[in-house]
Every structure is written in structure tokens, then in C-alpha cells.
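Thread: "does anyone have the structure for this chain?"

Original post by V.I.:
We have the sequence but no experimental structure in hand. Need at least a predicted one for the grant figures.
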Amino acid sequence: MLAKPEPIREISGACPQALSEELLQSTQPLLLRGLVSQWPAVAACSASPRAAADYLQSFYAGAPVVAMVGPSQIKGRFFYNHDLSGVNFRAERCALDALFEQIMLGEANPEQPCIYVGSTDVDQCLPGFREANDIDLGERTPLASVWMGNRSRIAAHHDLPDNLACVVAGRRRFTLFPPSQLGNLYIGPLDFTPAGQAISLVDFEAPDLERFPRFAVAMQHAQVAELEPGDAILIPSLWWHQVEALESFNVLINYWWRRSPAYMDTPINALLLTIMSVRDLPPHERQSWRTLFEHYVFEADEDTASHIPENARRLLSPLNENATRELRAQLLKRLNR
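Reply from O.Q.:
Generated one for you, C-alpha cells below.
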């Protein structure tokens, strides 16, 4: 029998215009009850799915959105096909008002397609929305995205940025795992994914413990929260999270930001390059490279290059934007040789 997830730590009374640095820099997930309950969008969307659609359409400027559409048989689980050679949905470009109409007309239809609009820039899709519905994140310059659709189950994945996700309409269930549970979540391919991020192959609704036995260990570390309209959740960088939209019409706004400077490259590129150049070396060579990585990356401190005159440390000095640009140019030159 699988362990029951622990509830995510809950905080009430936080103000969207005065979030503390301690909260925003948390390395543990936080459930922020009622954080955006005063948003006009939450009030407008509380009456009915039709009212929610009407409110969002009042900002819509006509730019098409990309929706993932799958047959009712997938039961909202946007995923791979049976042999992981493709996916179980199709991508469609469509007008937002037509998409909403399709969702409304299909509410009472058991054969209604599963519809999911993910990670769509709020300012482009709904210009003006954030003038009345926003969060002050201080000096951070987050990417704000809107997520919409009917019932869905998005497999556990992780994101590089920190994530503050705010429920506007419907309910959402988040199941989270710390980064240390990577090996127990049975992650699929890195270079072919349903929506850009590698995902867990485990169906949380019906886990196959014969095929994925270590998932039982992951569940011993799981945290869960169910969010109502107006609630928000803080998901720290690299925490694995499955997201379930639980109503016939759901809307979420999220904010992504990184704690590192914008000029720094994404670490996933380093991972892919290391797989290409290090993973298949003989074991004794891999161990030698492990020592180098630990010395220059994972255990690097002020002593790493202290024996080198400061003016001659170059790459071993703290990186800035210019040094990073020069390093990227050197890497590209090496890769393109």
C-alpha cells in the first residue's frame, strides 16, 4: 500500500503586494491560502464557467493560442502513446473564444475531448489582464503565463525556475516530490517529451508497482495540496510536480523566475553535453571526471583558485555577463569544429 502524501505547509494571510523575501526564497513548497482571492478575475470567475470565459474574453485580443486536444479516452492524461513513439494528443492553433465555446458545449458530453492550453504568455494572450490581477515580486521580472482547459492530469515534471502558481477558476491538485526522488519517479526520455519537460512515466492514478517498484519510495516523500480559486502554491526550482485540473473549466496564472542572472545558460544544456561526452567513457575515466566536476563545480569555493594570482584566474573567477558571453562563444566554436 502506498504511503499517503504529507500536506504541503500552509500559510494564510500573505499579501500579493507584499510577499516577503523569506517566502519567495523558500526551498520548500508552500501553499498560500487566499493569496489572490481579491483579484477581480477570481470574483468574476466564481459564478460559473461561462462567467469565467466571458471575463477572460474581455481581455482577448484575437491572437491564436495553441491547445493540446486529446480524445476522451485519455481521461485528461496528456502523455505519450502506448510505445512512447509519439503522444496521445494533437496540437491545434485556434481562437480563444472558439476554444471556450468548445469546452462549454461539451460540459455534459462524456465523449468531450480533453482540452489543455499550457504556458501561454498572459500579456500577449490577455493584454490588460495583469493591470487588475497581478502579484508584486519586487525586483524580479517573472514570466507570467496562463493555463486553461477542462479536466487534465499533467505528469510529474520539474522546471528550472521557481514557480508561483495561482488558481483563478476551478480546483487543482498538486503532488510534489523533492529533487532527490528523481530515481524513484521513473523519468522518461530527456530529448523527446510531450510538452518540453521530461516527465514521470508512472500513472499516479493507477501506479504499476511491478514495473515501477521504487515509486512506493517516492510516495514516502510526497507532499500534496488541493487549491481552490484564490489559492496559490510556491514550487521551488527542480521540485517534481504533478498537476491535476479537477473541474470542467480551469484557469491558472503562474509566475516563473530564476535566482541566477539572465545571462547564465540553462543547466540542462550542461547535462545533455555531459551525457554526450562523459557518460559512456570507461568507468575509471568517469570517476576521474567526477573528481574534476566536484572540484570545479559542485565543491567549488574561494580556495579552488586561491593559488592562482587573482588577475590570472579567468574562467575560475566569478562569472559576469561579459565573461559568460566569451565562454559561450568558445563553447560554440569547440562544438562546431
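V.I.: this helps a lot. The CA atoms of residues 188 and 199 lie 6 Å apart.
O.Q.: and The first helix runs from residue 21 to 24.
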